[in-house]
Amino acid sequence: MTTRPDTGDTMPDVAMATPDGSSVKPSDFRGQPLVVFFYPKDDTPGCTTENIDFTALKAEFDKAGVALLGVSKDPPAKHAKFIAKHDLAAPLASDPADGGLADALGLWVEKSMYGRTYMGMERTTYLVDADGTIARVWRKVKVKGHAAEVLEAARDL
User: Fold this and answer.
1) Reported confidence tier of residue 1, pLDDT bands at 50, 70, 90
2) Which of 32, 54, 60, 83 is most buried by a 10 A CB count?
3) From what superkingdom does this record's organism come (predicted)?
């Protein structure tokens, strides 16, 4: 495995499907800072809280000129239901099963729970500057207070 892209590296540019049937990639946001938050799965407690927290602060991110994008491996139709169920405002994208952005960033990793190992998304957030350079990385994110911490860092960008 190669080293993971980190602060100072260019954000990999991989297209992902959106719930409306279009696609999005990090370079679509060039010219403004971007927060890309990767989370394991729609409609699980931590992931729901994280998405609700980013939604609650979306107006503040907008005021700071910072775009938001949540990413998981869930299919676009599941994202659409998740957005509707929780009235989420931060846009979501579906990372491809293989060769996706999470793979390029080294976030699709082996995990274990109750003695069982499986592949899953490592909860990680990237703050990308207007030129597409990774300005900050939060790895193995703890959800509580995370969205507010990211907002403060984004305001300083």
Assistant:
1) very low
2) 54
3) Bacteria
Mean local confidence (pLDDT), 9-30:
97
Q: 98-105 — which CB contacts under 8 Å span 24+ positions?
A: 99/14, 100/14, 100/16, 100/73, 101/12, 101/14, 101/16, 101/25, 101/26, 101/36, 101/71, 102/38, 102/71, 102/73, 104/5, 104/12, 104/14, 105/4, 105/5, 105/12, 105/38
**In angstroms, rounded to a whole number, what is the distance separating the alpha carbons of residues 7 and 97?**
25
SS3 category, 120? strand
Domains delineated in the chain: 29-155 (3.40.30.10)
Lowest mean pLDDT among 20-24, 41-45, 79-83, 94-98: 94-98
pLDDT of residue 3: 75
Q: Are 154 and 141 in contact (CB under 8 A)?
A: no
- State pTM to two decimals: 0.95
Q: What's the rounded mean pLDDT across residues 74-102?
A: 96
The DSSP line for 9-75 is SBPP---EE-TTS-EE-GGGGTTS-EEEEE-S-TTSHHHHHHHHHHHHTHHHHHHTT-EEEEEESS-
